[in-house]
Amino acid sequence: AFSVVSKLLSQCKLDLLDQLVSAEVLQVLKEKIALLPDNHRDALAADIDAIMYTTEGDVRIYYDDDGRKFVSILMRFWYLNGANLPDEVPGETKVFQIVFGDESTKEKRHLLTANYEFQREFTEGAKPDWTITRIEHPRLLE
C-alpha cells in the first residue's frame, strides 16, 4: 500500500486515492502537492524494491463514542530514491546519499523516510478495509 500510494502521490493522481486515504488527509495532500517542486514530488515515490526497512511506530486499539472498535498502526518506511534533491534540504537536515557503481558510472540515491498511519474498524459487521489516516514525508511534504 505504501509503494502504490507514494507513487500515485508523486504522479499527482490524487483522484485514485479516494478509497485508500481518508478524506481529511486527501484534502491536505491536494493543497501540499500543488505547491511542491518537481524534484520533491519525484522523491515521494517509493518503488517496492527500494524499501530498505519498515517498522511499526505505534499500534493503538480504541473505541469511539458509539462503541465502535478501531485499530490504528503507524508504519515507518526507509526507502531509496534517485530524485535530484540537494545535499542539504530546508531545516538543515542532512539527506543520506548512497552511491552505487564506480566513479565513472555512479548513481546517487537518497535514503528517505515516510510515516503512514493505517486504520481499520474491527466492530462486528464492519468492512475489513484499511484506510490511511496520516501521510508524512519529512522534509519533502511539509
UniProtKB/TrEMBL annotation:
GO molecular function, a single term: ribosome binding
UniProt feature coiled coil, ranges: none
Any one Gene Ontology BP term: protein insertion into mitochondrial inner membrane from matrix
GO cellular component: mitochondrial inner membrane
Protein name: MAIP1 protein
Biological source species: Pygoscelis adeliae
